[in-house]
Amino acid sequence: FVGAELVGTAVAETKHPERTLPKAINAVPFRIALFYAVPLLTILAVTPWDKLDKSMSPFVGMFSLAGIGIAASLVNFVVLTSAASSANSGIFSTSRMVYGLAHDGAAPSALGKLTKNGVPANALYLTTVLLLFSLVMLYAGNGIMEAFTVVTSVASMMGIFTWSMILIAYLVYRKKFPERHEASQYKMPWGIGMSWFGLIFFAVMVYALSLYPDTAIGLALTPVWFIALAIGYEILTRRHAAKRARALVGEGASQK
Question: For the chain, which residues make up each domain, given as ranges?
Answer without folding.
Answer: 1-131, 143-256
